[in-house]
Amino acid sequence: MFRTLRTAMRDTPLSAAQIEVLAKANQMASAGNAAGAAPLFAEVAHELDAPRPRRAANLHARAAHAYADAGRPQLALEQARAALNLFIQYQMADRTPVFYANITRKFNNKGMTGAATAIQNEFGGKVGSLPVPSQAPARPAAKRGVLPTNCPKCGGPIHSDSISWVDNQTVECEYCGALIRSTPNR
Question: Residues 106, 108, 109, CA angle at the centre, nearest 5°?
């Protein structure tokens, strides 16, 4: 599904300070410092809860994963709840079941069974009742080109399953809102 360029441009960008914090958090996460990255993701997520709830939801999800990787189950659970509540409230039907499955699996794999059980009890019925996302026929990759693996502005990962295409060559970063152009396939 495409967003119009006008819609993407109307969404005000993050402040320079927020971009800086996100870039630092993404660098820390890439270097394996989940304990340092998690509170930074959570900080920006909380700042964005009201003005940009969809971005906040994705950042709460990043914080939940980072806290889980750092062995902080209560903080991971708090961030996972915030992410899922926003995903559901803003009808992010493609993102909700993916995050729910991934964070539940991570909690179980990290021995955080209490957190996994809490998420399943609180959100299992809500996520299970969501309509299954339709699988629109994919456009040929040659028409879209190749995307970088990380946002050049904030360093956030670009996941092919959760990107928002603005047009055939441009995606919007789900964390900072930067418009990222693909390069032609070679």
Answer: 65
Q: At which residue do the structure tokens 């402040």 appear?
A: 15
pLDDT tens profile 88-116:
999 988 889 989 999 999 999 999 999 99
- At 114-140, the pLDDT tens digits run 999 999 999 999 987 665 554 444 444
Query: Other C-beta atoms within 10 Å of 144: how many?
Result: 18
Query: Structurally, how many domains does the chain consist of?
Result: 1
Question: Which pair of structure tokens corresponds to residue 24?
Answer: 């630092």
Whichever domain contains 43, its CATH number is 1.25.40.10
